Amino acid sequence: MLTLVPDGSHERTARLALSLLAEPGDPRVADDVRRRGPVAVLDTWSTQIAAGEDAGYRSGDCVAARETAERLLESPQPAGPRWVCPGDAEWPGGLDDLDEVAPVQRRGGAPLGLWVHGPRQLAAVVTRSVALVGSRASTTYGSQVAGDLAAESADRDISVVSGAAHGIDSAAHRGALAVDGVTVAVLACGVDVAYPRGHESLLRRIAEDGVVASELPPGATPTRLRFLSRNRIIAALATGTVVVEAALRSGSLNTANWAGGLGRTVMGVPGPVTSSTSAGVHRLIRDGGAELVTSGTDIAESIAPLGSDTATWVEGEHRLVDDLQGADRVVLEALTVGVARSAVEVAAAARLNVEVTEPALGRLLLAGLAERTGDGWRLSRQAPLALRSH
Amino acid sequence: MSLGRTRAVTLEGVRGRVVEVEADIGSGLPKMVLVGLPDTSLNESKDRCRAAVINSGETWPNRRVTVALSPASLPKSGSQYDLAIALAVLAAAGAVPAEPIRDAVLLGELALDGRLRAVPGVLPATLAAAQAGCRRVMVPEVNATEAGVVDGISVVAVRSLAHAVALLRGEEPPDDPPVEPLATTENLSWQGEDRWSGLDFADVRGQPAARRCVEVAAAGGHHLFLEGPPGAGKTMLAERLPGLLPDLEPEASLEVSAVHSIAGVLPADAPLVTRPPFLDPHHTASIAAIVGGGSRIIRPGAMSLAHRGVLFLDEAPEFACHVLEALRQPLERGSICIGRAERSATFPAHFVLVLAANPCPCGLDFGKDARCECTQAAKRRYKDRVSGPVRDRIDIYRKVEPVRRHEVRDELGGVEGTSVVASRVAAARARQQQRYSGTPWRVNGEVPGPALRATWPVHATGAAWLEEHLAAGHISARGADRALRLAWTVADLRGDDRPMLDHVKIAYALRLSEPLPAAWPTDLPLAAEVA
Questions:
Q1: What are the beta bridge partners of residue A82?
Q2: At what angle do helices A140-155 and A296-303 cross, to 10 degrees?
Q3: Which residues pair with B38 in a beta bridge?
Q4: What is the C-alpha to C-alpha distance for residues B316 and B320, in angstroms, rounded to an integer?
């Protein structure tokens, strides 16, 4: 029986072929695909490339790309990376939001698809997730806080998304892994490429327990442009983005920028105000572009739908004196530790009437704060202790 | 001939002085007189010598015996003169040839049966004998390895007085049993190799900043203050510091061994201390135990036993105030002078000081939800116990927080072990040694501020940056000097030729417990990688 809906497998092949021909994150390609569909775009490109036309954003052989795509899709490696694109159950809908925002630094648009490696379903993993990003040249403070936040988020079943780079990124991944949490690494190279090289074992662990994703085909190497494109995917995948440490011209501010543009929650962790490594975050918070977060609880509250998860504030210590009302408090201040004074003297010291002072002294006596000696009043021995906290 | 003469050594601190021992047998009632300012322990030598001589089968002169120790004005104490006195008397009596012992130095304490017991300080005494031009020493057998360390002197090891007499007469030595060494040293804390050999830097989980601080302290010989709650790992970190230090150089090894010899803690089988010692006296220790002292014999304290090693004062504010204040002299001069009414002694005391303290008396004042209940006044009092002048001499200050759960379980962090860090420290120390060759200094921590600024200035950008913080009052002048020394160590650890702005910034952070670069000094991100 003939079907009128476009063949899903054709579309997947076309998207994969296109991704092999064009640099990822090119808004012109994304725009074209969105308007005409990947199959039509690939047909057009075939014709144009055959005719020797150069659009300026693609290169290669259309026929070969299509064949490669078909081969990759027909015989996937059992434990290897898989191609996930719009229409697949595993496709995170949040990525489509990228089509709705303007390009930044000539990068933008929803990805044609993603190469995904790991046992978990990408869409399910990122429904409640936070991106932890920051400087590669982090400080011990930043790395520690990133690890803390990742572990605390993972404890609350929030997946941790990051870029597997040095510094904050790796601390975030490791923090989540250490508490058996779920973490997603989005790379600016093929999912099978260990970059940075020192993170080979980290990436292997993430691929075993979490998800490694990239819009670049396996084997692709990272470039400056690809890092910029990758940032938009991190921002779009996660429910919210936390910048832990970023200098004024840090790439992680680019991620925060994307997250803000996409309407995601942007959060920032403050550092010492004297630290240049935190200056970018401080600017972001001051400009109102980011909420200040200091714990996993803060993050859980910030990324939750309005009112559904409220952070319990760590209160300053509670003091008994906080409960005292009006005159009682004034009278308490008028009492001294050593010398007992008569009610009249206390009233005078408190600048109150005796009629108000006497009942107040009675209440303080009951609260154990005042002490009666003969006909005088003074502060009880326990008062300083009780006033401090309870 | 009724005069016998030989030599012994008296010790003042680690310096020894050769003492001439003369015995005269003259007419008069049987009596023995000892002159030359002997103290009680030395006066008792008369009775020990007499009994030992008789019990060794020799005859004690039945006349008036006068033994003089000269220089006569120098006070003398201890039991190491026994052998010299006994043989001088026997030589005077003509029982042994006088010539062989005339220029030899004889050391050892006699038991009543004639056994020759070990004495402390044989190594520095032998050194002094060699320096005085003496060619031969006769020492108790158990101290022989110790004396044998000294070059250019022949050591005669004897088990007993009878053994010594037989050797001098050229007879077959008697078959005496071996004598016990001075002390069993298995449980003495400075024995770096034994108690601390199993410790590895990789045992410390988390604490990236504190680990760096320990590494810098080891590389540049900088003093370190660790502040944190109980269980944060302060002691773990401090105990692993000596393991990062290179073996002692021959000269330093001799210095350290001499001090340990005087304290009587040098093991008989290992006369040379080759590893930097680690001393961690308890906070209840007395000032004499830590500084050194004693009324008759001045013994070195923990500060001197830690010479060329590490002195760790855990719970520093709990130490008695005068003990902490006594740190000032060794921190400034590298030695400690102990004065008593009759004499004074100077011991070397050049160590890396590690102080550990809780953040407050209850120890809970840390983190964002501090549960501390100490009053502000109590906290201030606690902090003030380590006084400003002592704090000012500490180079690195670091707050340590308890390790987090995820840090303990993190297997991908790539924690470096002792061998990796120690090799970086060794390389950094080699650079310093080369730079400071021909000067009295070895490591950055020793170089005085003016010399550092004049001869080895940091790059102008770094100096200007530090100047700004000095002007703003963020750091004291002395603190700025310390930061310059630290900047050099940071550069040495990274293998850079001269401290630049970045090194100075790291030094500043080390001094004020500010965050350090997480990736320093290894795993620096590639400049080409741009995110």
A1: A116
A2: 60
A3: B76
A4: 9
In angstroms, the Cα distances linking B486 to A228, B43, B427 are 38, 53, 16
> Which residues on chain A are in Cβ contact (under 8 Å) with B209?
140-141
Instruction: Please choose, from the candidates A125, A68, A63, the residue with its C-alpha nearest in 3D space to the C-alpha of residue A91.
Output: A125
A chain contacts of residue B527, beta-carbon cutoff 8 Å: none
Which of B6-15, B170-179, B423-432 has the largest mean confidence?
A: B423-432
Tokens of B224: 């370190």
Instruction: Give the list of residues 6+ apart from residue B335 with CB closer than 8 angstroms, or none.
Output: B329, B346, B347, B348, B349, B350
Residue B528's pLDDT is 32
The two three-digit tokens of residue B36, written as one number: 């030359």
Asked if residue B389 and residue B271 are part of one domain, the reply reads yes
What mean pLDDT do residues A195-216 have?
A: 93
Are A178 and B407 a contacting pair at CB < 8 A? yes
Closest CA to B180 of B146, B143, B137, B138: B143
- What is the CATH classification number for the domain harbouring B391? 3.40.50.300
State pLDDT tens for residues A133-185: 999 989 999 999 999 999 999 999 999 999 999 999 999 999 999 999 999 99
Residues A380 and A237 placed together within one structural domain of the fold? no
- Domain assignment of residue A353, given as a range: 320-388
Q: Which residue from A minimizes the CA distance to B529?
A: A224
Q: For residue range B364-380, list pLDDT tens digits in order.
A: 888 777 778 888 888 89
Say whether A162 sits in a helix, a strand or coil.
strand
The continuous run of DSSP H or E covering B226 comes out as: strand B224-227
**With contact defined as beta carbons under 8 Å apart, do B209 and B386 qualify?**
no
- Pair (B199, B159) in one structural domain: no
ipTM attached to this prediction: 0.78
Residue B521's pLDDT band (boundaries 50, 70, 90)?
A: low
- Report the gap between the CA of A228 and the closest CA in chain B (Å): 7
Indicate whether B526 pLDDT > 70.
no
Of A151, A163, A201, the CB nearest to B412: A201
Average pLDDT of the segment spanning B245-253: 90
Is A172 a domain residue? Answer: yes
How far apart are the CA of A62 and the nearest CA of chain B, in angstroms? Answer: 31
Claim to verify: residue A123 and residue A265 sit in the same structural domain:
yes
Q: What is the CA radius of gyration of chain A?
A: 31
Q: Which of A106-120, B220-234, B275-289, B292-306 has the lowest mean pLDDT?
A: B292-306
Q: Answer yes or no: do B208 and A136 touch at CB < 8 A.
A: no
Question: What residue in B sits closest to A224 (Cα-Cα)?
Answer: B530
Please say whether the beta carbons of B375 and B334 come within 8 A: no
Q: What is the CATH number of the domain that holds A340?
A: 1.10.10.10
Residue B119 is part of which domain span?
Answer: 3-169
Q: Are B223 and B164 within one domain?
A: no
How far is CA B423 from its chain centroid? 24
Q: Is B333 helix (H, G, I), strand (E, B) or coil?
A: helix
What integer pLDDT is reported at residue B531 of this predicted model?
33
Task: Please name the residue of chain B whose CA is at the shortest distance from the CA of residue A199.
Answer: B412
A315 is a domain residue: no
Q: How many CA atoms lie within 13 A of A43 on its CB side?
A: 7
- Please name the residues in contact with B454: beta carbons below 8 A apart, sequence gap of 6 or more: none
Question: For position B525, what pLDDT does the model report?
Answer: 38
SS3 state at A373: strand
Task: Flag whether A135 is in a domain.
Answer: yes
Looking only at the bridges linking them, the beta strands covering B64-70 and B15-26 are: antiparallel
- Asked if A150 and B523 come within 8 Å (Cβ–Cβ), the reply is no
Position A29 confidence tier, pLDDT thresholds 50, 70, 90: very high
Total domain count for chain B? Answer: 3
Rounded Cα distance, B498 and B485, in Å = 12
Mean pLDDT score, A222-242: 95
